Amino acid sequence: NKGKKMKILKTLLIGSLFGFTLAHAQVGRNTAEYNLSAGTGLGSFDPVAVFAEGGGQALRGSTAQRLQHEGVAYLFANNANQETFQQAPEKYEPTYGGWCAYAMASGSKVPIQATIFTIHGNRAHYFVSNAAKRAFDRDVASFESRADTHWKRISGEEPRRR
């Protein structure tokens, strides 16, 4: 749309004055496509906790440990996890806006159970069920590739960092 194009052109013009290129220009997120509950991602679970540095298990976050990041609020189990997230939010945010990774591979937005997840590289994939997780885990690279393509089509965003 015209407004989005103007925003990109303004960003590029300003960026050229400061020496960065289109690769560094940020276009707003499409949080309308995210799986959020009252603006909160991951059903109030801590996005860092599932990674090794956060303990490797799903933990509920606390409303006292709330952080807003690019239109999505996340809750954290402790200060350390919140600080870790702030250092690299692109690593810790769930893939596909917090929708089931297995379903996203076929272009569907299906809610998740935040306690069912797979960590692959620097990406946290969440699932609707253990059966969906097992199916995804049998061929992670193929499912990721398809889900990445569908997420870009649905949201207009690049998938989370690999």
Short description:
The chain is of the alpha+beta class and 162 residues long. Helices cover 36% and strands 19% of the residues.
Q: Which structural traits does this protein have?
A:
single chain, 162 residues, alpha+beta, two-stranded antiparallel sheet, 6 helices, 36% helix, 19% strand, globular
Report on this structure.
The longest helix has 17 residues. The protein is globular. The chain has 6 helices and 6 strands, in the order αββββαααββαα. By secondary structure, the protein is of the alpha+beta class. About 15% of the residues have low confidence. A two-stranded antiparallel sheet has the order 1-2. It has a two-stranded antiparallel ribbon with strand order 3-4. Strands 5-6 form a two-stranded antiparallel ribbon. The chain is 36% helix and 19% strand.
Largest sheet: 2 strands, antiparallel
Percent of residues in beta strands: 15-25%
What is the N-to-C succession of helices and strands? HEEEEHHHEEHH
- Report the strand count: 6
Outline: globular
Question: What's the layout of helices and strands?
Answer:
Layout: H1 2-18, E1 36-37, E2 40-41, E3 62-69, E4 72-76, H2 79-87, H3 89-92, H4 101-104, E5 113-120, E6 123-127, H5 130-137, H6 140-155
Antiparallel strand pairs: 1-2, 3-4, 5-6
